């Protein structure tokens, strides 16, 4: 269990661990409040996450948060990981087309189940091999599309002008 | 077959044929007294024993994340009160902290102390609501009355400061909205002193009560591996024996200045989850006591521009909310409104693990196990 006097891995060490395993595939990005953040190809995401969880020195056992961001021309899925053993946290991001399909992370962390259901419902992404792809938050009879998308138009939804 | 009683009265509905059993589906909620909100549980039952359970959530979905994209940071603070209305201060704190990190705003010390005092008072109030309703679910009415008596005092203290009892809207980016009134500190000291023996009072009714023990000891065990796999955090995770406390291991605000312990459980059953929260109330009270002694004078809010625009960037911060880790993920495009705001709430993950915990238990235990998770529905649905 947690080792207190053990030195926490630095940003460079964490990135290096991933770069050694996936050479040339790890693109560092800026992010406030975590130890390291990088982007990977969407085809690699399952492998990278599995590596992050199962490697002893990394052991990211907690999927702290998982979400999606809509950037008009593409989507970005974000995984916030944390390790109880090593006390470090990272962000892994991946780009995906707006109607794209992504590997489900439920095999790695069960917590991904509900997060993925939420993303699928609100953003319209599909998760491959998801064990229970039902909608989760919206009403049963919802047929107005994917409300968290930036271009979504709802009946009563008025977008405020930007100042 | 032969030992079946003879149908001597010859009534048409009494049969001597063998009676079979089969699994059936039972619906619980959305409006059920034990769900503390609007949550629907669909159960697959074998007699009285639960075979499987599917939680149906979303009845309180208010699209807070969508609303956030259409409001300025300041305008969104009152909405955070509605994420987890029982501990709204901590939600305020979480959002403000995320934005401060992004914009690199230094919060004055006095403001940080006020935040900690409010957070911990709110934590006690929230645990009191939990304890009261938890005991109520077990059929004990007295603790509920005791808990609400003390909670009322905390709400009075908070009302004195920010004018609200439930949805506070008290914290601001860079500090808090107003200073503590003159009579707050003496009143709060009085409360801290008064509250210490009150926890013993709750414990006297419950902790070693044979009925309570029978209903909670060894019931609804959640092992540590499953808990982490499902991202369960907060008291529920500490009850599994993991000594992890965000306020201690990764101190934010001024939590590193106070002395307090991390209560943990050993068997991760319902009783442990109860005990962890009881201990947490004592620790929270300790923190408030220390903070009241050492609160410095000074500003209560850092200067921010009237039209506040954090720089372009992304930040993820988390606070130790009453129910676990509460994360705020802010994506800023350098605008007055966030481009995207993700609310990572503790109850969402804590509820997802429920099916794993109730399999094989009776339906009466489900009520207790569910209550012991301290899930609050607006926190799940957002």
Fold and architecture overview:
The complex is a heterodimer of chains A (163) and B (382). Chain A has 163 residues and is of the alpha/beta class. Chain A has a domain at 11-100: Beta Polymerase, domain 2, CATH 3.30.460.80. Helix content of chain A is 20%, strand content 25%. Chain A is built from three helices and seven strands. In chain A, the strands form two sheets. Chain A has a five-stranded mixed beta sheet. In chain A, strands 6-7 form a two-stranded parallel sheet. Chain A is globular and about 55 Å long. Chain B is an alpha+beta fold and 382 residues long. Chain B has a single domain, classed as Orthogonal Bundle (Cytochrome-c3 Hydrogenase, chain B). Chain B is 46% helix and 12% strand. Chain B contains 15 helices and eight strands. In chain B, strands 1-2-3 form a three-stranded antiparallel beta sheet. In chain B, β4 (171-172) and β5 (175-176) form a beta hairpin. The model of chain B has no long low-confidence stretch (mean pLDDT 86). Classes of the chains: A alpha/beta (163), B alpha+beta (382). At the A-B interface, β3 of A face α3, α8, β6, β7 and β8 of B.
């Amino acid at each position: 269990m947690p080792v207190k006097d053990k030195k926490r891995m630095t940003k460079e060490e964490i990135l290096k661990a991933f770069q050694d395993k996936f050479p040339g595939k790890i693109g560092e990005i800026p992010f406030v409040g975590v130890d390291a953040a990088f982007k990977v190809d969407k085809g690699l995401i399952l492998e990278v996450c599995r590596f992050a969880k199962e490697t002893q020195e990394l052991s990211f056992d907690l999927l702290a948060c998982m979400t999606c961001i809509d950037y008009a021309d593409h989507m970005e899925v974000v995984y916030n990981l944390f390790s109880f053993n090593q006390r470090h946290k990272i962000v892994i991001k991946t780009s995906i087309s707006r109607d794209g399909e992504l590997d489900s992370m439920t095999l790695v962390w069960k917590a991904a189940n509900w997060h993925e259901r939420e993303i699928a419902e609100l953003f319209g992404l599909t998760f491959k091999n998801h064990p229970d792809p039902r909608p989760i938050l919206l009403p049963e009879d919802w047929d107005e599309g994917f409300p968290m998308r930036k271009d979504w138009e709802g009946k009563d939804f008025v977008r405020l002008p930007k100042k | 077959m032969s030992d079946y009683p003879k149908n001597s009265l010859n009534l048409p509905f009494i049969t001597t044929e063998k009676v079979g059993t089969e699994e059936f589906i039972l619906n619980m909620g959305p409006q059920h007294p034990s769900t503390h909100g609007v949550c629907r549980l669909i159960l697959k039952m074998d007699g009285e024993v639960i075979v499987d359970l599917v939680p149906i959530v979303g009845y309180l979905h208010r699209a807070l994340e969508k609303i956030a994209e259409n409001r300025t940071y300041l305008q969104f603070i009152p909405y955070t009160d509605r994420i987890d209305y029982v501990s709204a201060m901590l939600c305020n704190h979480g959002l403000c902290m995320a934005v401060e990190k992004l914009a690199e705003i230094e919060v004055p010390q006095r403001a940080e102390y006020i935040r900690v005092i409010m957070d911990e008072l709110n934590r006690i109030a929230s645990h009191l609501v939990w304890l009261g309703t938890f005991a109520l679910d077990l059929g004990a009415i007295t603790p509920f009355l005791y808990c609400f008596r003390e909670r009322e005092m905390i709400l009075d203290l908070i009302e004195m400061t920010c004018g609200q009892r439930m949805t506070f809207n008290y914290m601001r980016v860079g500090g808090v909205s107003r200073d503590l009134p003159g009579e707050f500190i003496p009143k709060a000291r009085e409360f801290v002193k008064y509250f210490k023996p009150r926890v013993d009072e709750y414990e006297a009714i419950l902790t070693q009560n044979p009925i309570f023990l029978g209903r909670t000891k060894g019931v609804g065990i959640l092992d540590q591996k499953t808990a982490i796999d499902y991202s369960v955090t907060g008291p529920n995770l500490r009850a599994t024996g993991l000594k992890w406390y965000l306020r201690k291991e990764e101190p934010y605000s001024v939590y590193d200045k106070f002395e307090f312990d991390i209560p943990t459980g050993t068997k991760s059953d319902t009783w442990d989850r109860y005990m962890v929260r009881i201990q947490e109330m004592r620790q929270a009270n300790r923190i408030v006591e220390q903070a009241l002694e050492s609160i410095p004078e000074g500003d209560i809010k850092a200067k921010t521009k009237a039209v506040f625009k954090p720089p372009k960037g992304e930040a993820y911060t988390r606070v130790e909310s009453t129910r676990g880790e509460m994360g705020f993920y802010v994506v800023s495009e350098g605008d007055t409104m966030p481009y995207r705001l993700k609310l990572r709430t503790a109850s969402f993950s804590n509820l997802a693990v429920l099916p794993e915990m109730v399999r094989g238990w009776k339906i009466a235990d489900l009520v207790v196990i569910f209550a012991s998770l301290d899930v609050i529905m607006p926190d799940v649905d957002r």
